[in-house]
Design goal:
7 helices, globular
């Protein structure tokens, strides 16, 4: 699998804003759970974000020496792995802790579901998650919004896009209104 550094979204902040909104909507009077929702919604990109940052700080091309990256992306963006984590939380009794529920639900359903419908371009088929790992097959839909725009000189533009900015602005306003009430 050939992977270009710019194909990895470092726009984890968008997931964080959506996690804040989910926390405000579903756990309006529980700030600890709201923080867990924010952290959970960003968690699936955590491994790739840390690796990207470390490579940049060390002056290496991002992900140039990490052959396991595709596996990490698959494992952290899988509904199957998420279901297993929920089952383990239920069996261990930790599901009863609201922060655990908020974290897992945000990571599994919010983050991964957003990615399913925003990672649809055929040119990324070989580098995007299938969302079913370790099972065969893929949940990649034929419709949705591809948030990654090609750069003029090749690579991919990972800066804030107008539609994404609008989504973030609306989510932030709604979140603040909910927090204030």
């Amino acid at each position: 699998m050939h992977l270009i550094a710019e194909e990895i979204s470092v726009q984890t902040y968008t997931h964080g804003v959506l996690g804040a909104l989910a926390g405000a909507v579903f756990f309006p009077h529980e700030p600890t759970v709201q923080i867990a929702c924010i952290m959970g919604s960003m968690a699936p990109d955590g491994f790739t974000f840390v690796k990207y940052a470390l490579d940049k700080m060390q002056g290496r091309p991002p992900f140039s020496n990490w052959s396991r990256l595709p596996w990490f992306i698959e494992a952290t963006h899988s509904f199957v792995v998420g279901a297993i984590l929920v089952i383990l939380a239920l069996l261990s009794g930790t599901w009863a802790i609201p922060s655990v529920r908020g974290f897992l639900l945000s990571a599994i359903f919010l983050h991964v579901l957003v990615d399913v419908f925003t990672h649809i371009a055929p040119e990324y088929k070989d580098t995007d998650a299938t969302y079913l790992w370790p099972l065969p097959g893929s949940l990649r839909p034929s419709f949705g919004w591809e948030y990654r725009r090609p750069k003029v000189n090749g690579g991919h533009n990972i800066k804030l896009k107008p539609v994404e900015g609008m989504i973030i602005a609306i989510a932030l306003v709604v979140t603040i209104v909910i927090y204030l009430h």
